[in-house]
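User: Please predict structures.

Assistant: First:
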Amino acid sequence: MRQFLKYVLATIVGLLLFTFIGFMLLFGVASVITAASDKQVSVSEKSVLKLDLDNPIREIGEDNPFAELLPFTSDGDVTGLIELRRALANAKADPNIKGVYLKTESPQAGWASLEEVRNALIDFKQSKKFVYAYGENMSEKGYYIASVADNIYLNPIGGLEWNGLEGEYMFFKGTLDKLGVKPLIFRVGEFKSAVEPFIREDMSEPNKLQTASFLNSINNHFMANVAKSRGLQLAELQRLADNLSIQTAADAQKAKLVTRVAYFDEVENDMRRKLDVDEEKKINYISLNKYSKAKKYVDEGNSRNRIAVIVASGDIVSGKDNNQDNIASDKVAEQLRRARLDDRVKAVVLRINSPGGSALASDVMWREITLTNKVKPVIASMSDYAASGGYYMAMGCRKIVAAPNTITGSIGVFGMLFNAQNFFKEKLGITYDRVTTNKYSDFPSVTHEMTEFEKNVIQQSVERTYNVFTTKAAQGRKMPVDSLRSLASGRVWSGEQAKANGLVDALGGLDEAVKLAAKDAGLKEGDYRLRFIPEKRNFMERFVNTISDEEEARINSQLGEAAPYLKYMKKLKNLEGIQARMPFELTIR
């Protein structure tokens, strides 16, 4: 037995040592590659910046030292919106870059992010350099970016989605009924539809009203921009969508939505002629990852004067949550304090991309925003979403800038508990009993029915939070509280609608917000440098997260069609306390 234990212990130690050495070797290889990749990349003459925009597009990208090395290249690599915009601005001035090739079929991004990319491409085209786009099958999101290209190519057997936008919600009431779980809902405002998936099997009329309103606003903006770029009539584009007229690549060409139906080799032949290179010569493509390390032709500005761009993206939670998909209140509050106390930082742009979350966490960050705003200008830049808790953050800023297709507003709060007594008893055979020292020692509880008095206590707390939210919003927007509340009640607006009703000050992207921040700080163009906070996530952080992502992907593959339910149920962990959150999960496609 002693020998057996000795061998078992030796095996365990060996495995641990092997894992440690393997990890250190991987870290060493990554460090060497990272160091090598930090060297300036040389760009050949007549190069083409190749942009694959079908990967997830997020505010800030991730470093991947293996990005250019097979088999480490991942289709799931994140494209950083900030890095992408910088690269296009630099390529505009780079004499060795003659054009941009776009692969944009089905981008994984919101409409406001696509707007930023599209506007950056429009700016690039001022250099008179070409932009070519090719796709085998293009979604409307992919086509929105491609629509600014000089030439749009579609595979002969491919297709183009052209049928308008759809907003879809998922409802869980049937699931909860089968499990014997009873949701207890506390909310203010007829439009606060974030709780509907738990108490309904379909959308309420107010929710249908608001969704149709902002969805049509986003769709009209999309169609109008496409019409302008392609020299088409808006009414004709709407007719094509209404009649499902675009069924084939040939239909798309006939409608002048694409320039040419062609295979990829034909696209490259066109590019060679444009580049004036031999037909047999390989095109000098350079990827976004490599080009980010090329010579800089854009002056970064005076480093003594800085505008801090604090990126807040994800669900709003309390504390110092390390999840990259969350906005942790303590982290953002600390970033704001540092910016406020740093004399080199003359202004702050708060880049918000959030559907909301914890009302308490939102208020913690609002406080730091208002304190900073007293010392130096703080401008809000809204991305895909700045709703509910996201708007709570923005309302403390001096000015608010939104994209026309930003989803914003949703000024309202709710509280939610689940009575799981029947679930535990009927499904699991578990019962509960208790002894208390005071009448409400067990308040609140998920294992027995709450009294009307207890429910009323929570409802009053929700109403107090709503009053605080709307009062602060009214102060921030400099309008009477009653006027603000007429726009609130949890209603969601598009950026264009929010500008019209006074919830935002200006329409535009990050550039517009930076210009307003510089103006309020008394800085001229070239007098300041942007500093983005946080920086790109480094390789080791990404590697550790990839392990957990792969495990989650494995579980999801086993769950099949039930996987989305797991994703949404995991989000329930963040629904602690009173929430300032937009409709729980909205998919626009």
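Second:
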Amino acid sequence: MKNYLFIISLVLTFGFVNSQNSEVLADSYYKKGEFKKALVIYENLNKEKPYNYNYLFKLIDVHQQLEQFDAAQNILIQRLEKRRNPTLIVELGYNYQLKDSLEKAKTLYKEAIDYIDEKPNYVYSVAKKFEDHSLLEEAIKVYDKGKVLMPNQNYSIQLARIYGDQGNIEKMFENYIEYIAYRPNYINNIKRAVSDFISENKDNENNLYLRRLLLKKIQQEPNPYWYEFLSWLYVQEKAYNKSFIQEKALYKRNPESLDRIIELAVTALNDNDSETSKDIFNYVLETTQDATTALTAHQYILEIDTQNATSKKELDVIDEAYNKLFDQFGKSELTLPLQLAYGEFLAFHQKDTESATSFLRKSMKLNISEFQEAEVKLLLADILVLQERFNEALIFYSQIQLSLKNSTISQEARFKVAKTSYYKGDFDWAESQLKILKSSTSQLIANDALDLKLLISDNKWEDSTQTALKYYAKADLFAFQNKTDEAISLLDKILEEHKGESIIDQALFQQAKLFEKKKQYNKAEANYLKIIADYREDILADDAHYYLAELYNTHLAKPEEAKQLYEKIIFDFEDSIYFIESRKKFRMLRGDSIN
């Protein structure tokens, strides 16, 4: 008996595998357009398993591809004589449509739709069959029937997708909103689906539709997910202050965590809305009872104030604020992030490297982890580079590499070894370190390493004395030291004394970014235009186009010129890292209703 069952099992398995292999082969023929070969296999599969609808529909499809509409019709009619399946009725109607018998097709479509009244369980399969043939209006009718006949089911997500395909954005939004009410935990999926249809422009028609719908929902049923969705929409529009209002409303309803509010503050800060970011962090300070959260907020506020400070008096006020916080919270493992921020403030803004170094060395004596010690050493080494004490800095960077091998901070230390060697003019050693970092697990470090390696390798052989490259590295160091004017002057020296050398476009680009830092936007514009005119085939061409477009768009109020540059990137620099962002901003400036 056991042997008999084994043999039966083997035969069934072999039959399944054989059918599976045949189907794969038939699909392969179909994709290649070899429909006659596919037809033979599907005919055999349909004979073997006449009740397998998958094989039947593929057989019909192949007949239709070969324009053998009568053959497809005969198969469908024979099957419908046995059982009036509504998906087969749709298929027969579509076959008549392909034969231009539109009245017969419409009659059959109506029959399939009416069938739903008797057997609502067929809603999805019938609507899906209509969708397969791009019969979207018919699919909508079926799903709408389903909503009435099967109120426990929800077809809003399917309807939203169809309305989106039709370009009926308002109806699409309505159905997505309806689906969120049905399944609130799907809100992030809906955000992703909606994101392609809105833009940064708050006056965009689609944005207005969605905002009205959400505000209406908040008035009707103030559930947390409507506030969350509206907050998300405001973030897309970069209206961080309005998003903050929604987040506060959310927090008041559920005051468990300030994480969402802090995340919004950081997003606003990263997008240069420091005023809103500071307002949010002040709210965090007023609200939180947690020391770590308070310290994080204090630190961000002080860093914002530091970036906006324009006088020594303002910096001294910030210095005093740091010390008051240390009096309040002490100097321990808990306040280490604040200590690191203060050490950087002293060195890079107060220009007091000795006090910064002394302060950080005391931090190293605290009861901190090996990783935290590495963070302190990394900043100490940076300050030594600031002082041009390169060899001492290299010792710290190397210690981090040895103590925390293969970690991200170790890779960052290796990159800084390379950068320090580059500042010193030791280009060969710098290049050897950068080669290793090209495969860094940190994409940011890998990209920075590749950029610096290309700069060195492209320019170190042109001049045996490597004068221009040494000037450029020194200008880079000046920029690191916040000596912006000195960096610009040294880059001017390269531009004047090394005309025709390959480093010129790099010097123009670096200088343009420094001009932007000093808000000398017209000078930056001139540099970008020169790169575009004289170095259109070189590696920085797309960078120059993008940065100039951003300059026009955000500082020089020249939206038309910005639009032309974004369009240039779309058509001439398809492989550029700026391609996706340029397409998005081009469509926004053009006023597209769909982003």
